[in-house]
Write a structure and sequence with these properties.
This protein is α/β, with parallel strands linked by helices and 439 residues long. The chain is built from twelve helices and 17 strands. The chain has two domains: 131 residues, 3-Layer(aba) Sandwich (Rossmann fold); 245 residues, Dihydrodipicolinate Reductase, domain 2 (2-Layer Sandwich), CATH 3.30.360.
């Protein structure tokens, strides 16, 4: 891509101003009225180009290598591009390289997202000296191998959720990254939506009083057809060897992360799961194989603070594409949120006079709301994509204050969520209440 010659552009602008000024002088001798107008034009142009004082020093680049170019790859690439446009950070993220196995598709992705280079072997990408951080957007079974290679080469890591296939893998990743003292993030993105962050702030302020209940669900319907195969691009989530689990690690992991972030650790669970279609054709063999993921999961949980919880997720809720909701009930107030109306937080305050009690709707688009003031004017909505931008912004901010409290999920926090997922699957297998390991 050709680099814009800013000096030439500036010279052209200055020449235009000089021409206008000269014309104004000439006009002055002929027609005072014309001269006055021309001088006004010259003055206006001069003001526009006379900012010769040096601006702030440009942010130092954080050169990111992105592995994976699917749905999540696009979401992350968009965040990398958008952060510098709306947030001030000392490090400017740039898409230094993108990696994938299909060279033609990688080149197409790189052209669309202005990646500076491509690779078709992730091992070459993580070894490059011009890569500062690696963004892992691959299926779950490759997270650990890629992350450990990144750590060996001293790279920061941004990893898609869940952290790994299970807690054992997650432990190895946490141990290695903490020993190397490398910055790391796991992309649990929903917590970065303004309404969800506001819910966290309200709970942290103690406004709810004692929390009694937390309930959440994440409902989809895309795997109902028995003709849908398992394995391969787009369908690896149905293959237990690649995904680790079904809705528990894919959908409920989001619910669990948000719940733990807002209301603290989950200490025990009781669960049931179901696989409705027992066999599916595998794309790798063309033959029917047993389906070993959970198509649906429901579990009860108890938080460390004593609150009770109910979680449900399924890919068999006909009519629901991505219905993610949560509700929190406290002694004084209740909060509720729905992904389908993601800019709103529902709010009930028992402290108002009895004749005015009722659920109110907070439209979280004002400058006082988390992140919203960095974008548009009040009343204009944000979307799903901004959650990734906010997460990356928090990660970049933490690089300047590594000892400050993290405002994003790192490997260790994600390991805690992995432990809950593992306990849910174990409880469903045994039919018994199961304690959750602490991260």
């Amino acid at each position: 891509m050709a680099k814009k010659n800013t000096n030439t552009a500036k010279s052209a602008t200055v020449s235009k101003s000089a021409t206008v000024s000269k014309n104004a002088t000439t006009a002055n001798a002929k027609n005072p009225k014309t001269a006055k107008n021309a001088k006004s034009m010259a003055s206006s142009d001069s003001i526009a180009i006379s900012t010769t004082e040096p601006g702030p020093a440009p942010a130092r680049e954080l050169r990111i290598g992105l592995i994976g170019y699917g749905f999540m790859g696009r979401a992350h690439a968009n965040a990398i591009r958008q952060v510098p446009h709306f947030f001030k950070t000392s490090r400017k993220p740039v898409l230094q390289a993108v990696c994938g196995r299909d060279e033609a598709k990688v080149r197409e992705f790189a052209a669309a997202w202005d990646a500076r280079s491509i690779e078709t072997d992730w091992k070459k990408l993580v070894a490059r000296d011009d890569i500062d951080a690696v963004d892992i957007c691959t299926p779950n079974d490759s997270h650990m191998e890629i992350a450990l290679a990144c750590i060996k080469h001293g790279k920061m890591i941004l990893c898609e959720k869940p952290l790994a296939l299970d807690g054992k893998q997650g432990e190895a990743m946490v141990k290695a990254v903490e020993k190397a003292k490398l910055p790391n993030l796991v992309w649990y993105n929903y917590r970065f939506l303004p309404a969800v962050t506001l819910a966290k702030n309200i709970v942290d302020a103690g406004e709810l009083g004692q929390v009694f209940h937390y309930r959440a669900n994440f409902l989809q319907d895309w795997t109902i057809s028995a003709d849908l195969p398992q394995g391969g691009t787009g369908l690896w989530r149905l293959d237990a060897k690649v995904a680790g689990s079904g809705v528990t690690g894919d959908l409920l992991a989001h619910c669990i992360d948000t719940a733990r972030w807002i209301n603290g650790d989950i200490v025990a669970v009781s669960a049931m799961t179901e696989t409705f279609i027992k066999e599916r054709v595998h794309t790798a063999t063309g033959k029917k194989q047993a389906v070993k993921i959970d198509d649906a999961c429901a579990f009860l949980a108890r938080f460390e603070n004593g609150a009770m919880a109910v979680f449900e997720s399924t890919r068999y809720a006909r009519g629901h594409k991505a219905l993610y909701t949560f509700e929190i009930n406290g002694a004084n107030k209740s909060l509720a949120w729905d992904l389908h109306d993601l800019n709103r937080l529902l709010y009930f305050d028992h402290g108002v006079p009895g004749d005015r009690r009722g659920w109110s709707s907070i439209h979280c688009t004002d400058g006082d709301h988390p992140y919203a003031g960095k974008w548009w004017v009040p009343g204009l909505c944000l979307g799903y994509e901004q959650s990734f931008t906010h997460g990356l912004y928090e990660f970049l901010t933490s690089l300047d204050a590594p000892k400050a409290e993290k405002r994003f999920p790192d490997f260790r926090h994600a390991l805690g969520t992995q432990y809950v997922c593992d306990a849910v699957l174990e409880a469903a297998r045994t039919g018994k209440w199961t304690k959750v390991k602490r991260a």
